[in-house]
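Project standup — Tuesday

K.O.: blocked on the structure for the chain from last sprint. Re-posting the sequence here as requested.
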Amino acid sequence: MRLTVPANYDAAILPQLKQYGAFELYGKLPFDITGGGRPSYMATALSKKGLASYIDAVHKNGLEFNYLMNAACFGNEEWTRPFHRKLDALLHWLTDLKVETLTISAPYLVQIVKKRFPHFKVKVGIYAQVDTVKRARYWEDLGCDTINLESFSINRDFETLIKIRQAVKADLVLIANHFCQPNCPYQIQHQNGHAHASGLNPSFYIDYPLMQCQKNRLTHKELFITAGWIRPEDIHRYEAIGYQTFKLLERNIPSDVLVERAQAYHERRYEGNLADLLLSWGFKKRPPKFSPVHMLRAFRFWKMPLGLAPTALQFMKGQGMLLYTQEKNPVHIDTRAIPADFLDRFQRGNCNMQDCTACGYCGRIAEKAVTIDPAFLDQILPVYEKLENTLVSGRF
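H.V.: unblocked you, prediction finished:
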């Protein structure tokens, strides 16, 4: 098993990550010409000099670096000469840093890199939504070396996973610890919103899809089980059908949490709260290199409407996001209450994810395994309602 691990830019933990199976760190500058898969305000406040120093540390620890250029949209700027001048400058700089891999979600950008900078390995980003044999073959024929499969929807579709693995020679990557919903109705809006909230000129952005998904999970706890995460204990099932590389999330998490996640998957065992491996919020510590000053500058840059700011900040504080912390994770997923044969039903093909209400399998497991702190719900759900009403009314 090989792990591709998010860079939170704490070089001190690189030896531990390598010890626990990491071969690659992935990350990017908070602002660049291509943008990425996260809003720039969520990114670590990192200069080019700081990133260069971190990449140097990555290489000294015998690891590789994967630079993300994985936005789903470039706002049609890719058809302009200034875009290409800035893109060439960025790729020359990454070449000088000896970056090994680029993650890309746009076919046109793959063609550019393969023609002008063929020394880079290219990894297809998850926003390309590779979930069929036909899509996987397309990207491989385009020259891509590695493909992140659309794990949200097919991590538990073993028939499709087997067919894709048999159809292409490229390395295939599965995200192990995400908790997005299969066939999420917010997916297209979400990835495009992130694209336009990143890049050199990001626009103001409220993560409405994230807000809605968070609320849906907190009010329908079976969604914590229907999400296509992979337990550390189940990694062997995927290795048995030819999958050896797994991606871990998330970039803006504390160092101790990142190391814990790598260790759990490397050892293929985790006996704690499974939510601690999955959630991107609710930590006891702030992410490294993330400060109140950074957040203030971000919001000033984005020009958050004054009528929205108090409720948005209340939401982030109550949820334990960005610089806000929580003493205890309010969501608990008891790994011991999830049956050891949990995936048998999926491997037999008895779940098509079309009608979870009629099936009820994940709901029955959630009743035993998932608990959410009632006091937390009493505190946060009114904030969700207030924020949603403010956004829908347009009076901000």
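K.O.: great, moving the ticket to review. The longest strand covers residues 22-27. The beta strands are 2-6, 22-27, 64-69, 101-104, 121-124, 146-148, 171-175, 245-247, 331-333, 370-372.
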